[in-house]
Amino acid sequence: MIATIAAQELRLLFRSPLAWIIAAVMQLVFAWLFLAALEEYLTLQPKLALRESAPGLTAFLIGKYLAPAAIVMLLISPLLSMRTLAEENRSGSLILLRAAPVNVSSIVLGKFLGVFGLQFILLLLALLMPLSLLFFTSPDLGSLLSAFAGLVFFSAACTAASLYFSSLTRQPMVAAFSGFATLLFLWLLGSGSYSSESTSLVLHNLSLPWHLNSFLQGLLDTRDIIYYLLFIALFLALTTIKLDSLRHTESS
């Protein structure tokens, strides 16, 4: 049933003009970032060759291309998720779905996988650009795949949070704005400087991009993986609780 709901959600997204517009704009942005990073590297290559610890092509592309891709995913996640539950709640189709012989957690997980599935496809397309360099040079595949894995976890976390805010309202734009504001707050949480070292450590560890850094450096840290998994589980659980409370309210 989860796979059925996810497939249906993915089909609905592919039929939506908004999803195609977002996908097109996203690919244009990724292409611009990639070409700009590649041109900058080629321009700086004579100077980089004189430095002992100069970054290679892969490290340069990750910093200039894949790292900014996280901001793009933060922006599009609320837009792709905003109608998932809010629109269905407003139209009444969510009531019919909740009345079906399927538990709420399966509905939430299916919706999540459907929205995230589209983002995963878009990230794969973004990865093809640096992989195309295999025809001309030898990029570090391990570092590229590590950075890609980090973006996958980051995107999934953004989707889970955005899905929760879609469950709180019947207005998609309100859901998108609330999701974006929360994700932006979690992004900026680790960028400030704090007087207390313990406070700084706690806030940095709560920040979404803070746990992306090790992936971008080619490191797979289990602490970062656990953080993203717990973040996703938390917001999916909150969404399930919210929908379950609506079911009990309507039944009473």
Keywords:
252 residues; mainly alpha
Structure description:
Helix content is 81%, strand content 0%. It has one domain. The chain contains ten helices and no strands. The protein is globular and about 70 Å long. It is mostly helical and 252 residues long. The chain has helices at residues 2-15, 17-48, 57-91, 93-99, 104-131, 141-167, 172-188, 197-206, 213-216, 222-251. Helix 1 crosses helix 5, helix 6 packs across helix 7 (172-188) and helix 6 packs parallel to helix 10.
Q: In the residues, how many domains can be counted?
A: 1
Parts with pLDDT < 50 across at least 5 consecutive residues: none
**Rounded radius of gyration (Å):** 20 Å
Estimated structural class = mainly alpha
Number of strands: 0
3D shape: globular
Mean pLDDT comes to 84
Report the helical percentage: over 70%
Fraction in beta strands? under 5%
From N to C, what is the helix and strand string? HHHHHHHHHH
Largest sheet: none
Question: What is the end-to-end distance?
Answer: 26 Å
Count the DSSP helices: 10
Brief write-up:
By secondary structure, the chain is mainly α. The protein has helices at 2-15, 17-48, 57-91, 93-99, 104-131, 141-167, 172-188, 197-206, 213-216, 222-251.
Chart the SSEs and their pairings.
Layout: H1 2-15, H2 17-48, H3 57-91, H4 93-99, H5 104-131, H6 141-167, H7 172-188, H8 197-206, H9 213-216, H10 222-251
Helix pairs in contact: 1-5, 2-3, 2-5, 3-5, 3-6, 3-7, 5-6, 5-10, 6-7, 6-10
